[in-house]
Amino acid sequence: MMTRARLHRRGLMAGALGLTALGALSACGRTPVQTDESGRVRLRVAAGGPTGALHGGFYQAVATGAYERRGLNVEILAGPSGADIPALLAASAVELAIGRDSFLPLRLIAERAPIKAVAAFLQKDPVVLLAHPGQELEDLTVLRGRRILMEPGDQTGFWTWLRARFDLTPDQAQPGAPEDNLKAFREDRESVLIARLTDGAPSLIAREVGFQPLVLTPAEDGYPSYSGLVLAPNAFARDNAQALRDFIAASVEGWRDYVHGDGAKGDALIRRAHPDLPQRVLDAARASLRAQAMVDGGDAALYGLGAMTPERWQAFAEQTQDAYSAVPDWREAFTSQYLPSRG
């Protein structure tokens, strides 16, 4: 089994060559998958960072045998925050990857990387904004003039949408380490903290800061990003269409079971990969997944779990156009042809 450290090293070695190598891969011959001793197709999936509830349905599918029943041997590989997904795919360290939001596929298209989102298992981005209680905060327009605390990765992602949509100023962005952000949030009553429901917010944050924060949900205020995206190189999808369809179909089963059934088996595998993650965080995250209909609401309510629509991708691309090195063609960022309803 590839360890987190080995996965990280392989990704770093690919580094700057990642996008170039992927382009070459797309232009070359077939990219057949490997099989194990039982004849099952081996698929390695990059988690894109430390494991958590964002990966719950995938782990549930491993734990319940949903992948195995479809002839797949799936291994989910955790990594550090901000793992270089294009480099991992280019180095053949993994066959598939999980993306946190819709920024990544569009960035890849802007850089001419031949990778597409082939499913979105969270219909809403779980990002939330937390504020001190006792304030009138009806919508996101109240953010002007406030200090916005965030992790560095959000500064080139979610913050770009937030700033453009609500006419915020660059100096409001305050990136920092999670522990520094919590301290600043606790001490500054006017500050706002960017967090995620899949990381146990707001209940986990309440334990840390000593009060129950107010919660603003960007997905309810026009933020159109998907989350839990399955990313596949175009060449891999072309040459292994049935394996990809089987992976997505089993993942649908896993996500449905994780959210509405007993998620204990999936949680056990998540915590094996991430021993420092408390069970209470996963419990809070699963409760949010259900309460917010993040998995089976939105487009999934109409077209099935994993669904994506052109309208959502177009809206996201238009609202975030300043976040990319070149204007991406949003039509190239995704495909629905491997979803069960399109099979």
UniProtKB/TrEMBL annotation:
Keyword Endoplasmic reticulum: no
Keyword Cell division among record annotations: no
Keywords: Signal
InterPro entries: NMT1/THI5, SsuA/THI5
One protein family per Pfam: NMT1
All copies of domain SsuA/THI5-like, residue ranges: 55-258
Gene Ontology biological process terms, A to Z: thiamine biosynthetic process
Stored PANTHER family: 4-AMINO-5-HYDROXYMETHYL-2-METHYLPYRIMIDINE PHOSPHATE SYNTHASE THI11-RELATED, THIAMINE BIOSYNTHESIS PROTEIN HI_0357-RELATED
Name of the protein in its database record: Hydroxymethylpyrimidine ABC transporter, substrate-binding component
Protein species of origin: Brevundimonas diminuta 3F5N
